[in-house]
Amino acid sequence: MELFLIKVKHLIRCLRKNYNKKFPSSPLCLNLGCGNDYKKGWVNIDADLYKNIKKLDLKCDLSRGIPFEDNSVDYIFNEHFLEHLSAKEGLEFLRECRRVLKPGGVLRISMPDLENAVKMYFDSNWREKTPASMYGFEVQTRAERINYSFRLWGHKWLYDREELERRLKEAGFQNIKFCRLRESEHAILRNLETRRESTLIAEAGE
Ligand SMILES: C[S@@+](CC[C@H](N)C(=O)[O-])C[C@H]1O[C@@H](n2cnc3c(N)ncnc32)[C@H](O)[C@@H]1O
What we know:
Blueprint: H1 2-22, E1 29-32, E2 43-46, E3 58-59, E4 73-79, H2 87-100, E5 101-111, H3 114-122, H4 132-135, H5 142-151, H6 161-170, E6 175-178, E7 200-205
Parallel strand pairs: 1-2, 1-4, 2-3, 4-5
Antiparallel strand pairs: 5-7, 6-7
Bound molecules: S-adenosylmethionine.
């Protein structure tokens, strides 16, 4: 068993080295859980769970780690991805982001905000604000709507500011800032979001 684990760890190390060699671009930027949002100049990675992705640089299950060497990546972006991992996988994923980022590197996370789902539950205009196009069918009740926020589209764990900040800190990030859609003090991280529903956006560094 021990020998088997040593072999697996060695294999993972070799894979990481190969990926670093394969993408020597400077700066090295990862678009994780990219779906069909292929970003030119970025390394676009996804497990392609729904077998609908037209273009990818790497296919891999990111809940098992990020296949790059320690301190080798400049920027990481992910949109509507983290909520597709369980809480445990999500924390491990954030730790992996921290591991691969260079000192001074930045992680940008964009996702739906749990707070909005809760506000919507208490909003007297929730029906008008829930068009059928949002879910592909008409939602009948507030309970149905809030349940879908948590469970539909493969969602496993929703975040609000407090929860995201706590998990980022647990993963070792110290410098955490909440941002507005498509805005950033880092030029390379501006105008990346493709979805208006990305209302919870944070940038984190060491
Ligand atoms: C809602 S889509 C978001 C895609 C894209 N970022 C966007 O905003 O349009 C979530 C993506 O996460 C990917 N995904 C889910 N779990 C994953 C995992 N464990 N490893 C890698 N990709 C995963 C899915 O294949 C899917 O493409």
